[in-house]
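Lecture notes, continued. The same structure-token format from the folding unit now serves as the input rather than the output. Read the line below as a description of shape only.
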């Protein structure tokens, strides 16, 4: 069985329509943050009822968020997806990212001066204890999705806040509006960048697997030429990809691991910290 994350927006509604005849269950999260939230939920409910599709809904109300709302919302969303995934014994979760998302994510990474192992978003990966599949990531641009929905007369909701430049992704997205040729050039550039990283990625994965087999011991880590990459993968795996590491932070972590001083822990964020326990590197929850 496949789990499909459906917000009620155009991308996920097309994804749902494409897979409606498969063995699926739908998960919808309503944050009740926008006036149109109930409308989006009803769109998903109506479609699933009409097509006899299993639907699980998480309704979040009366909450206070300290810090970044998007980080908080992402954690709530994926915690819920994991529960549904396990309840129905799913083999993968489908997400509706498309080519525009691929380009936007790359530009966000560049803006934040990040140097990831893989630029932008992978079509398939394993995270949060789930097999994640993004069928549209190299298939459709946003304008193509909208045309298909129009032709098939599929209802969807538009998030009115997407037009507001209150978040970095919104600013990048709105700046790329009607710049189709530029988007295509950037898309091709990302594919080339990732292609030339493949050999290095394979070697890094070998080093990481070897380090993992040794229970993440300090000595094996220090032998690797790819310490920055190993730290990125290690932290991502241990925190369910909930921490965005800057290069400066990665260097601080490496310095902490290398240090012979009696430093007990390295704070990663409000939820996680790193420790050196008997020459073994561990990530623990507070």
């Amino acid at each position: 069985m496949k789990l499909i994350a459906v917000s009620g927006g155009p991308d996920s509604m097309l994804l749902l329509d494409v897979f409606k005849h498969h063995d699926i269950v739908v998960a919808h999260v309503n944050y009740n943050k926008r006036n149109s939230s109930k409308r989006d939920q009803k769109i998903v409910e109506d479609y699933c009822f009409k097509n006899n599709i299993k639907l699980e809904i998480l309704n979040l109300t009366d909450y206070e968020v300290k810090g970044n709302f998007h980080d908080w919302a992402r954690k709530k969303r994926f915690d819920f997806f994991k529960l549904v995934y396990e309840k129905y014994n799913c083999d993968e979760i489908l997400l509706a990212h498309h080519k525009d998302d691929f380009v936007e994510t790359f530009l966000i990474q560049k803006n934040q001066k990040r140097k990831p192992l893989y630029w932008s978003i992978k079509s398939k990966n394993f995270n949060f204890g789930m097999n994640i599949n993004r069928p549209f990531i190299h298939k459709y641009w946003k304008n193509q999705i909208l045309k298909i929905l129009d032709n098939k007369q599929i209802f969807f909701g538009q998030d009115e806040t997407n037009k507001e430049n209150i978040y970095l992704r919104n600013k990048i997205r709105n700046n790329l509006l009607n710049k189709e040729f530029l988007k295509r050039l950037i898309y091709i550039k990302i594919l080339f960048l990732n292609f030339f990283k493949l050999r290095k990625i394979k070697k890094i994965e070998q080093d990481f697997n070897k380090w993992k087999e040794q229970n993440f011991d300090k000595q094996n880590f220090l032998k690797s030429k790819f310490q920055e990459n190993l730290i990125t993968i290690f932290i991502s795996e241990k925190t369910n990809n909930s921490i965005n590491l800057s290069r400066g932070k990665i260097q601080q972590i490496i310095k902490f691991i290398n240090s012979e001083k009696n430093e007990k822990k390295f704070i990663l964020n409000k939820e996680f910290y790193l420790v050196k326990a008997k020459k073994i590197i561990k990530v623990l929850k507070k």
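Point for the exam: The radius of gyration is 21 Å.
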